[in-house]
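Internal ticket #5521
Category: modeling
Description: The requester needs a full-assembly model to guide mutagenesis choices. All entity lines are attached below as received. Residue total reported by intake: 620.
Assigned to: D.W.
Attached entities:
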Amino acid sequence: MSKLKYALFTGCTAKESTPEQMMSTLAVADKLGIELVELTEASCCGASHLQDYDDFLSLVLNARNIAYAEKHGLTMVTICNTCQLNTAMTKHRLDNNAELKARVNEKLGEVGLEYKGTSQITHFLYAIIDDFGLDKIKEMVVKPLSQFNIAPFYGCHNIRPSELQNETHKTPESSYRPTSLDDLIIACGGTNVDYEEKNKCCGFHAELQSPKTAATLTGNALAGAMDQNADWMVTPCPLCHLKLDTQYHHASVAIGRDVKMPVLHMQQMVGLALGCTPAELGLQHHVSNVDFV
Amino acid sequence: MNNNSITTKDVTFKVFRFNSETDYLPTYKEYKMEVTSEEVVLDILNRIKWDFDGSFSYRRSCRHGICGACAMKVNGKATLACKVNMHEMVELFGNEITLEPSSIKRSVKDFIIDKSDFWEKHAQAKPYLEAEIDETPTMENLVSIEDNDKIEDADLCIQCGACHYSCPAVEINEQFMGPAAFVAAYRFGIDTRDDAQGERLDTVDTPAQGVWDCVKCYECADACPKEINPIDKITKLHNMVFESGKVRKNVASRHAVGFAHSIKKHGLLDEGELVRYSEGNIGVLKHVPVALQMFKKGKIVLPWNMPKSDNLDEIQKLIKSSSTTKF
């Protein structure tokens, strides 16, 4: 297999509130021999809020990000579920609406860019599962996570809406019974924990305007994993991670019980199994204890 | 082998049972059946009633996916019982299938639920045209093809409640109108014959009940048996609220606008400034305890270290030329 190479769309949190997401992505890519070309020109995807204010502007900015991946001739890889959704949704809309694509390209033309639709978009989770391969990861595991019960938390924007995700992912994933993260846990030698909230919302996007709803959803997710005796949770979404890792106080108040547990980024879990050190994976940046490492 | 041949699968059903007149708590009764490849979920409900227990209660009517009466859940998946093939559910979930009403907590008797909350919220959206009617018109009240196209598929809603009872915000926030009501608000609000758009936008812009409390999980998009994609209509309502100039200036609307400000300044989102801009200088103080915890762990970027996108001038030029909304 030739070396895998992607255009990396970091999103905003990897540069700010989840530096460990960036660190662990680079560490895992290095271990797997995946080359990442960072799209330093990329802007924020709008995180599903800019589109509420100005849908067309959101399309233009996301199309610009994809246009840079196209300039490299590479598949764009995201490391945030919401970046994944907004970028994939932009691609879907432009690829299926010639008039809209022309309007967007008229704007991009003002800065010498063009959206062609030639680059695919995938999340790092699916890049390592579908492109690199679970079997190969399994062969590379040097520190199997065999003593841990690990609760997968998928995050909405990688699995819904199904129609878009089925079009985007090479291996279709059911939003009602997702398997990718469970499969990755098993490949890393861990035991996957099944619980009702694993494909539910963490509440991140309503945190400011609807704090009670957001905190209750966070609490339900943490409690669901704890009730199934999970040692820790793992998620491919840095926004879910922020909510679950830093908001446990509010979540505990909202649901009336103490909920707190370690929450790892998907890359950190893989990195641990591949033999990366906790410091390389940025575990020192977590708010909830990660004593188990 | 004939591809049209009927196959069978052995399935164990765990079925929600509850009678509000006699039971304190619900139970799950187990029924084992051989299910054929031709049966839909509604056939199973019928067989439970006809073959096992005549007291089992559920709603059904058209059997053609257009009345919405038989909405329910299969292993948590919102389902129109008359539309979904049973073998497809077994392929998705395995041979142990849990059948439940759309909302467990609203069960009156088995799968029959009290949908009064749904209808009250639906009524809030004014799901009808409000217009001054000329009682002696000289010509038809025509709608252009372009204007009719804006209604999109919002007209196809059958009020089954699948999206409403799949929405986590509806479950937690009793005031939240929910996706079906928003689809109705969009459908009639976008109709050029309607005179009540302003009133509807005011309703959906109201904190707690309106579109701002959507958690953006896309459960409604997956739940809808008519593939209406309610969250797409919620986004359009957001856009209409801004475009109408009627938007209330509060934490929710400023949160959306804050993204544009931040991207214009940095390309990337300034997370800390976004919270301050959304909440205001006083409101932001409630986030200080969490911010301090994050700061200790190296998760807060100070303003003078805020990263910027390369070619920021391009982004700024595009924002200037492409913006369609003012705040």
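Resolution: model delivered.
Comment from assignee: The first helix of chain B runs from residue 41 to 52.
Ticket closed.
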